[in-house]
Amino acid sequence: MLAKGNIRKAKGQMIILAVLFLIAASLLIMGLSIILGFNSHFDELVEELNATDTNFNMSQFLFTPEMEELFREESTDFEVQIGMHLFDAELTWNDDIILQGAHFYNIADSRRLSQWKLVGEYRPLTHDSVYVPYMYHFSAGYNLGDIITVISGGQNLYFTVAGFVENIWADAFLSPRFFIPATRFQELYNDFPNRRGVYIYANGIDNVPNFTNLLVIETGLGDVSFHPDLWISFFTLDQIISGRTGTAFMMSILMIAFTAVIGIVSILVIRFRIKNSIEEDMTNIGSLMSIGYTSRQITASVVVQYASIIFISVVAGIIPAVVLLPLVGRVFAVLSGMYWQPSFMPVPALITVAGLTALVFIFTRISARSIKKIAPVLALRGSATTHSFKRNPLPLDRSFLPVNASLAFKSVLQGLRKSAMMFVILLAVSFTAVVALVLFYNSAINLAAFEQIPGIERANSVLAFTDNQDNVPFQEEINAHPDVRDSQFTHQGPTTVSGEFALYMVMEDFSRRVTQNVFEGTFPRYENEVAITWLLAQELSVEVGDVVYIGDDDLPFIVTGLLSGMDLGQFGAYITYEAVLTLNPNFVKTMLFVYLNPGVDAALFGQEMENRFGDYLFMTIDADEQFARGVAGFADVMSLVGVIILVISAFVISLVLYFVIGSTIVRKHRDLGIQKAIGYTTANLMNQISLAFSFPIILGGAAGAVLGALLVDPLMSMGLRPMGVMQANLILNMSWIAVTGIVIVVLAYVISMLVTWRIRKISAYRLVTE
Q1: What is the pLDDT of residues 191-231, one digit of tens each?
Q2: Per the count of CB atoms within 10 A, which of 137, 209, 336, 356 is most buried?
């Protein structure tokens, strides 16, 4: 009964608290649903499709009976599947032509391991139709009946989309896997004899990198600089899980972290409201005690008042979470290519309802415990004491400030707890807003940092020459082109570093790299120097200056630097051309990175090179378009998250200020009426209260902005570290950050002025008549 009366008395404030907790509950339910649902869905999919631990792809020329025997000895189970790997294929994607490569499978082949399944509507396969990965539906906008063009070996292949498939290995960063009828597959098999591939799906291989190195030795592939008809690669299930669920996990963590911020703010507001209500209702508390209510019963009424409202709002938060989850699922489908249709999950809802309600119950109980210390006689007099003997912090008769400013400062000093609460709230919210702004700026305004994070060299065009001639003269001609500012021959290949399988990269001069991804030490310059990835250094327990051994002959190399990024995977090494010649004297330069002048179209440049050097070029790659497409999905999601957090931050600030200032006006109702009676105008009192709140608001907003600018990069780097990225190096536009802090402060002041407008209704006459 008491709780019901208290709720009726403070309807507006209870509604604000309910809205805050509804937002927090919705975000928390979605975050937990993503962590539990998205990841568990992927695990269920792995089990349903009987996905293996590893997938090895190689040229059919390399798969010998001896190699098959190696798989038989090293794995607990494996299966060999035949396919076509058109890795020079260009595909239509969002009305563009991109070089992505493509794998083709015969749908008639039986599969026991790493199976696939159709999702959504589909049609029977005809001669020219194809089942494509599900990501082509959400990411590229393909629907049933659309035409996909595949350009390979000078031929245009046309396929009609008949359905969408889910396959564990159809990661967005890998070549797509298409399933076609047996007759069409046989045509490809006959037309592209050098693109026939073998796909081995295996379980139980203890050390996949070292086993792959054994395969490289067996095939002699390590002695070949580049050959378009010979290839071997592997992918582990852990890599696929990281690639397809990593972004979803980061987004869920952001949601949960933002929920924590809203939760802290809401708890502080509840504590403030309870302390205020105890002071406001001191006489009522004394009256209740005098007629027989115990302090425990009054405390229980306060706890029930808040816990019941919060419980209802948290339960109501399930509705927007359920409505928004399918939209979140569509976003993740674009990033992961996985068919996930989230529905209501009881476990996240129960955790959220129980957790937030229990949190409010505990903090409400702690905040209201001062009621038991109140004596009924003193409470009936309106306060615990009739006089205050505290030191006057700012005597008005000796102040050199204007009266309004002096009164504002006095209010701040007399209400340090309230000021501290506002400082913490603005710090938390402005910190979150700055982090969101930095994410938005780096993902939507200036993508330079996002382009550097993967550690991939940002050449504009890549030219792959055949390896049967000296290609250096071609480089000299290309460097003379007016659109070219630089070029470098480069190469990647498999090797071992102190017994661990790794990919190496060779460049003519690492100091001319656009992507400077050494975070400790320097790039290698001499034939006995190497820079290795941070994860490989951790695995080998080596640091800059230590010695590692590369290749089958265990040649010693000095570690000159540690690499950040995902350019070569987790285990990678950079070495010089002089070094690769000691490892492979037959090495031939074939892959050329071309750096174009600003504004030059890389696609047109590639076409010109094909017309000019067509007899010697194996393929050209529009690196600008490839990289932009790879970054676009992640950047779009992060910018969307940034905007949402900024909007919610502004909304939270508005609600909190409305709540706190409204409570202050109610508590100071009598004092404000007296001040009006002695000559203060409504404008004077509005500015006085707004100024009193502006000091902690300015300090909190500034501190949060500074803290956000200092911590956003370390926090982002920490989240990316498992993928090998040590330094995110996000761009911090200080003018944007400063403007954000100023906007938060101005917004808070404007809201405070709007809320204090209700002072106009207070008058000395009303005080007397009431």
Answers
A1: 888 888 899 999 988 877 677 767 766 666 554 444 556 67
A2: 336
Residues whose CB falls within 8 Å of the CB of residue 651, separated by 6 or more in sequence, listed in order: 23
List the structure tokens of 727. 């330094």
Give the distance from CA 245 to its chain's centroid. 11
What is the C-alpha to C-alpha distance for residues 171 and 238, in angstroms, rounded to an integer?
12
The answer, yes or no, to whether residue 745 has pLDDT greater than 70, is: yes
Closest listed residue to residue 464, CA positions, set 614, 616, 618: 618
Tens-digit pLDDT profile for residues 434-491: 888 888 888 778 777 777 777 788 889 988 887 766 788 888 899 999 999 999 998 8
Rounded Cα gap, residues 201 and 381, in angstroms: 83
504 Cβ contact list (under 8 Å, min separation 6): 492, 493, 494, 495, 550, 568, 572, 573, 574, 575, 580
Rg (CA), the chain: 33
Residue-wise DSSP of 526-545:
STTEEEEEHHHHHHHT--TT
Please say whether the beta carbons of 241 and 632 come within 8 A.
no
**Closest by alpha carbon to 489, among 627, 587, 597?**
587
Helix/strand/coil for 142: coil
Q: Which residues neighbour 109 within 8 Å (Cβ) at sequence distance 6 or greater? A: 81, 82
| Closest residue by Cα to residue 626 from 103, 160, 172, 248 | 172
